[in-house]
Amino acid sequence: MSFASQTSLSxxxxxxxxxxxxxxxxxARADEILTPLSLRQVKVGGEIGRRIDVTVHNNLLxxxxxxxxxxxxxxxxxxxxxxxxxxxxxAAVRFAAYxxxxxxLAFKKHLVAxxxxxxxxxxxxxRLAAPNRMSALWDVHEMAYLGYxxxxxxxxxxxxxxxxFEIVSAVGR
Length: 173
Known about the structure:
Blueprint: H1 3-23, H2 30-33, H3 46-58, H4 65-75, H5 85-99, H6 102-117, H7 139-171
């Protein structure tokens, strides 16, 4: 069966399941059909799982983030260009949550701590020299993804803190 056929069949089955509640006169509730999962509850196997492991161990954990990413944010001498540090932070956050690998968690914490140190007093968080800021093609794009990556990092920390609070509250009962 082709991928397109499998996708169509999956969509049809999902539609039938959703509509079955409507046809029988009962409204299906989302919590009866779908159960949200966090990355910490999922373990991917097969080829995709192998590729995730290869990405983590042969890419993320061997990057020289200092040389390839952070140094240009400290120097702020570039006139244009794009590094992708926000996307790297996003990936590090998500892979750290998924793998629970302490080295990856430390890598993510290092990236976040070091990029925050580079923020200018006026709020600028980027790698370009002053005359090129906010006007160079990729500067705004870089800043947007840095904001996104940092937001994902904070969100991940909040989810963890809430889970710890739930555990402590349950133990105290």
